[in-house]
Amino acid sequence: MEGRIIVVTSGKGGVGKTTATASIGAALALEGKRVAVIDMDIGLRNLDVVLGLENRIVFNIVDVVNGRCNLRQAAIRDRRIENLFLVPASQSDNKDVLTTAGVDRAAKQLRKEFDYVIMDSPAGIERGFENSVTAADEAIVVCTPDVSSIRDADRVIGLLYSRSITPRLVVNRIIPEMVAKGDMLSHEDVMEVLSIDLAGLVPMDEQVVIATNTGMPLVLQNDSKAGQAFRRIARRLNGEPDLPVEVPSVKGGMWNRFTQKLGLK
To answer: What is the pTM of this model?
Structure first.
C-alpha cells in the first residue's frame, strides 16, 4: 500500500504552519507510522530548526529532485522518535529551481518508502505552493482566528478544491480568554466562513516557543496543551475520525465562565 501525501499550507505566513508540520509528523511517528516531513520552503528553510536537526544536513529536497543524491541520503532520521525522518529544503536556491514534474517523480519514491509524507508548503500561492500541492492527496490548512488569516485561508482552500485536493482545517493559537470576552473569533466563526471539515483546534501555548528554541518536538512535551492537540489531530488522520475535538476553554472551566458572566470575577 502506498503512503499518503499531506500538504500543510496556509494563505499567509506566521500562522504556525511549520510547527504544525513538525508536530503532526512526529505524532504520526509516535503512532507507529513511518513518516517523512519535507520542507518545501526553498531558500527559507525552518523545519530543520524546529526539529533540532539543522546540524545534520548534508543533502536536501532539491538534491533529491534534481538527481544529485537519492532519497535515503537526504532523509535525516530523528534519533528521539523512531520512524521520523526529515528531508530539508535548500537554503542556497530559489523556488524556481524545482518543477512540478520533478516533485512528482520524487513523490512516487516517497510513497514507496513512507506511510505518511507531510509537506510543509511555503506561505502564499505562487511557485512554492504549486510544487508542494502537485502530488498531494489531501491538505491541512492552518489559520489563526483573525480576519486576514481567514481571508487568505479561504483563497487557498479554493485553489485546493480546484486541484481535487480535500482540505481540512486546523485553527491555531486560540486564546480562550479572548474568545470568551468576544475579543477573538471563535472556532465556530472561523468554520462558518471557511466551511471545511475540522481537523483540530490548537490553543496558544508558550511551550511552542520553548520547543522551537530547543529543537524538541512539541508532542514530546507532556505539559504542552498544543502538543496534546497535535497528537489528537494525528490520531484523527490515522484512522480515528470520530475522536472528539477538544475546544480550548478558559482556565477554571465551566464554573469560572459562569461566574464571569455574572460579574462575580
So the answer is: 0.92
